[in-house]
Amino acid sequence: MLATKAYAAMTSTSELKPFEINRREVGANDVLIHIHYCGICHSDLHQVRDEWKNSSFPMVPGHEIVGLVKAVGHNVKKFKLDDRVGVGCMVNSCKSCMHCMNNEEQFCVNGASFTYNSTENGEPTYGGYSSQIVVNEDFVLKIPDNLNLEEAAPLLCAGITTYAPLKQHKVNSSKLVAVAGLGGLGHIGVKIAKAMGANVAVLSRGETKRQAALDLGADEYLNISDPKAFENAEIFDLILDTVSAPHDFTAYINLLKIDGVMALVGAPPEPSPIDTMALVMRRRSLAGSLIGGIKLTQEMLDFCGKHKIVSDIELIKMDYVNKAYERLSKSDVKYRFVIDMSSL
Ligand code: NAP
Ligand code: ZN
User: Fold this and answer.
1) What is the pLDDT of residue 232?
2) 115 in ligand 1 pocket by Cβ < 6 Å?
3) What is d(CA 177, CA 291) in angstroms, rounded to the nearest whole number?
4) Pick from 43, 60, 134, 224: CA 20 to 30 A from residue 34's CA?
5) What is the rounded CA–CA span in Å between residue 167 and residue 170?
6) Which ligand is nearest to the CA of 244?
């Protein structure tokens, strides 16, 4: 076993603190990664606080992992020492069910092994708030050479989670897209939708993020705290909803054209009611999307390399994590906290 420094939450009400975990020895198909940076996703906060009611403790969060390869097993073909690599939300799956065969491991019939708060071969998984991780090579991604590691880290979750539905719903230069919520996912969603050629609006609360949204490349800004924002119905082809808390779905849906789609990626802990008529009367759809498979994740990273898309980050030290969680819960971050793991 490889003794590994980490930060963990021991219960849903305790702060994160130093903790030691064991990583498995490097197997024939494994890659040992020295973690340099790890992003803080709102899903980390939901799970540490057990808001989805599926948390197990101790929990070492973190699924936006980047670093360098430090060892490879003897069967590993795709990676060598010192390669720049990443690990996202999954570390393994059965590789043989219909969904794995279709490169959508997130839907693995036998249950994908998520990077933390999950199990792999019966053992608990621990995430990226740690110094190193051992991962099956099929779940390791290559980071394009032209992207800074720390700014690329959030692509491993926020990037793929927004790229997947934008691609699924065929975003291109003829589409009017709105991104709801300008946080970690939302700001990367804006950049990716712009790179796909769309006209992009941001739906955000208040006026504080207006200039920032336009600076990110958005064409339009709607302050949803002002009821007037919802007066102009039937504008958008697609709304990418990244909002992390319950909100009025019906009001957003009414901003869609006929046949428009609202794709939900935000995962608020409580359900929200919907007025069916808002869908029925304009043949609109409400869709969901869950991260993305490994093949699509590599495609997204290569797309971001080509278009020079990275996250706007606040680089923090490990011991700032509890303060960062408090600020994230108030949407007070531009736009992603990334932990410098050398401070662990
Ligand atoms: P984040 O950085 O906290 O951003 C969420 C944004 O939601 C905030 O910046 C805020 O935008 C908006 N918001 C928060 N509370 C709101 C409220 N009460 N009403 C309206 N808007 C509100 O979080 P994130 O890391 O981007 O994650 C967003 C959500 O996606 C989380 O629920 C996370 O668990 C989920 N997620 C899902 C997947 C998936 O596969 N589907 C993957 C990763 C994350 P403004 O300040 O601009 O209003
Ligand atoms: Zn995430």
Assistant:
1) 78
2) no
3) 19
4) 43
5) 5
6) 1
In this structure, which amino acid lies at residue 231?
E
Tell me, what amino acid is at 123?
A: E
pLDDT digits (tens, 9 = 90+) for 28-57: 999 999 999 999 999 999 999 999 999 999
- Cα of 62 from ligand 2 centre, angstroms: 8
User: What is the CATH code of the structural domain delimited by 159-288?
Assistant: 3.40.50.720
Residues carrying CATH 3.90.180.10, the chain: 2-157+310-343
CATH 3.40.50.720 intervals, the chain = 159-288
> Which two structure tokens, joined as six digits, stand for 135?
């991962």
Q: How far apart are CA 329 and CA 193, in angstroms?
A: 26
Number of neighbouring beta carbons within 10 Å of residue 33: 26
Which superfamily does 2-157+310-343 belong to?
Medium-chain alcohol dehydrogenases, catalytic domain (3.90.180.10)
Q: Lowest-confidence range among 14-28, 40-54, 177-191, 228-242?
A: 228-242
Q: Does residue 181 line the site of ligand 1, with CB under 6 A?
A: yes
Please list the alpha-helical segments (H only) found in the chain: 42-48, 98-101, 149-152, 158-168, 184-195, 210-215, 249-253, 276-280, 294-306, 321-329
* DSSP letter assigned to residue 130: B
Identify the nearest ligand to the CA of 263 by its number: 1
Q: Which of 208, 331, 332, 336 to mutate to test the pocket of ligand 1 (most atoms within 8 A of CB)?
A: 331
Token digits of residue 124: 């608990």
Distances from the Cα of 181 to the Cαs of 103, 156, 245, 325, 328, in angstroms? Answer: 29, 19, 10, 17, 13
